[in-house]
Specification:
The protein is built from five helices and seven strands, in the order βαββααβααβββ. By secondary structure, it is α/β, with parallel strands linked by helices. The longest helix has 17 residues. It starts with 33 loop residues before the first strand and ends in an 8-residue tail after the last strand.
Length: 229
């Protein structure tokens, strides 16, 4: 996303993007699978996202980020759980270096704000990976929040409206992590009521063009068990 606009970007999990080598055994799926997401997994994320949203100010664009656990069967990603971890954005040396040497020069000085961006602590990535293994689940990717920053941000940043679509920063990070599934949750509040929109995206295979777009993946949310087919 443009440098001075997003209040809540996800950064690659402490990188252990290095740890991505450990995910090489993740079952492969067609280029455009369908994503089935359990409603409880979404509810857990929305609860955390709403809590973070309530604390967002123009000076503190707090992010909300989680990992997606589930399974891959044929042409379907099934998201069964979300897992949270600590943000090591300012405490991890690798994260500090990434933001200082790559993200700020490429996406602008807005990312010098320590509250903008997410870098999951590598210890939590390992914990979640082990948790997934114990449950016979795969670590599929991530989900993060985009708030209605055009209402919450400073006047200088209110000309850009976020949505459930990836920003330039998202595209960069999706390509770096190489996770097959990346979900964006747009969250806004109107009249004291929260509304959200979701979209799922595959990572770019290369960042050769600023206009390159991620491929959208069909996303379905499980209907309440009261309405079982």
């Amino acid at each position: 996303m443009p440098a001075a606009t997003n209040s809540s970007e996800s950064a690659r999990p402490d990188a252990s993007c290095a740890t991505l080598e450990g995910f090489a055994a993740l079952p492969s799926a067609p280029a455009r699978p369908t994503v089935l997401m359990d409603d409880q997994a979404l509810a857990d994320f929305l609860e955390a996202a709403a809590a973070a949203y309530r604390l967002v100010t123009a000076e503190t664009p707090l992010p909300c980020f989680a990992l997606l656990l589930g399974s891959v069967e044929a042409a379907t990603y099934h998201v069964r759980r979300v897992a949270f971890g600590r943000n090591a954005r300012i405490s991890d040396p690798a994260a500090r270096s990434e933001f200082r040497e790559t993200i700020v020069p490429e996406f602008g000085s807005a990312y010098e704000n320590e509250h903008r961006g997410w870098w999951m602590d590598s210890r939590d990535v390992l914990r979640v990976s082990r948790e997934a293994d114990s449950l016979s689940l795969d670590l599929l990717g991530s989900i993060h929040m985009h708030p209605d920053w055009h209402r919450l941000g400073p006047p200088s940043e209110r000309g850009y409206v976020l949505s459930e679509r990836p920003t330039p920063m998202d595209r960069h990070l999706f390509a770096r992590t190489e996770w097959p599934l990346n979900v964006i949750c747009y969250l806004e509040r109107r009249g004291g009521v929260f509304y959200h929109a979701l979209a799922a995206w595959a990572p770019l295979t290369e960042l050769s063009s600023e206009r390159a777009e991620c491929s959208e993946i069909d996303l379905r949310i499980r209907t309440s068990s009261l309405l079982e087919a």
